[in-house]
Design goal:
The complex is a heterodimer of chains A (108) and B (115). Chain A has 108 residues and is an all-beta fold. Chain A has no helices and eleven strands. Chain B has no helices and eleven strands. In chain B, a hairpin with a 2-residue loop joins strand 5 and strand 6. The chains are: A mainly beta (108), B mainly beta (115).
Chain lengths: 108, 115
């Protein structure tokens, strides 16, 4: 069974702080890794993807991948109240496997 | 900007009835997916579709489910005899498959309520 694990949260951070979201996966054959944001009642929205070990930055977001540890993370700098949502980690091997999501709350 | 569309946005049906959920993927995309998300739970893969046939399906995708691409644009999910536990959001997604990357774009979803 291919699993993707995330802390369910809620993770609460003050506005302007860095939010750190973590994800582990079980399938060593996974090739690509994605972070989605999902607002309540809405569909997942792709934030970032990463394929290679190391860091990838896009604006306020940085994804980090460590394949040896089977670990992916997402850092959100200068967190805003509008970042409050559930963040889904998804891993693709044969198909996409989603984690349960971490609920982030950014407090004004 | 191109987007995946889904209809209807909300479907209410009686247990045992058939439902068809419709999706229009992004036009140059080659891979199509259906996912389910029960309220408060994670997004679950149902089926992937490529080159007019099913590529992969999950354990959830049993004989009650079927998918079709009846024309060049629509992609449908049929549930033959709905059960109470089929109540969920159903998301369609598509990706190009041609760039070497796997950026998957989701439609807005259909909320299915089985009474």
């Amino acid at each position: 069974q291919k699993e993707v694990e995330q802390n369910s949260g809620p993770l609460s951070v003050p506005e302007g702080a860095i939010a750190s979201l973590n994800c582990t996966y079980s399938d060593r054959g996974s090739q690509s890794f994605f972070w989605y944001r999902q607002y309540s009642g809405k569909s997942p929205e792709l934030i970032m993807f990463i394929y290679s070990n190391g860091d990838k930055e896009d604006g306020r977001f940085t994804a980090q991948l460590n394949k040896a540890s089977q670990y992916v993370s997402l850092l959100i700098r200068d967190s805003q109240p509008s970042d409050s949502a559930t963040y889904l980690c998804a891993v693709k091997g044969q198909n996409f496997v989603f984690g349960p999501g971490t609920r982030l709350s950014v407090l004004p | 900007e191109p987007e995946v569309t889904q209809t209807p946005s909300h479907q209410v049906t009686q247990m045992g009835q058939e439902v068809i959920l419709r999706c229009v993927p992004i036009s140059n995309h080659l891979y199509f997916y259906w996912y389910r998300q029960i309220l408060g739970q994670k997004v679950e893969f149902l089926v992937s579709f490529y080159n007019n046939e099913i590529s992969e399906k999950s354990e959830i995708f049993d004989d009650q489910f079927s998918v079709e691409r009846p024309d060049g644009s629509n992609f449908t999910l049929k549930i033959r005899s709905t059960k109470l536990e089929d109540s969920a959001m159903y998301f369609c997604a598509s990706l190009t498959g041609t760039s070497g990357y796997n950026e998957q774009f989701f439609g807005p979803g259909t909320r299915l309520t089985v009474l």
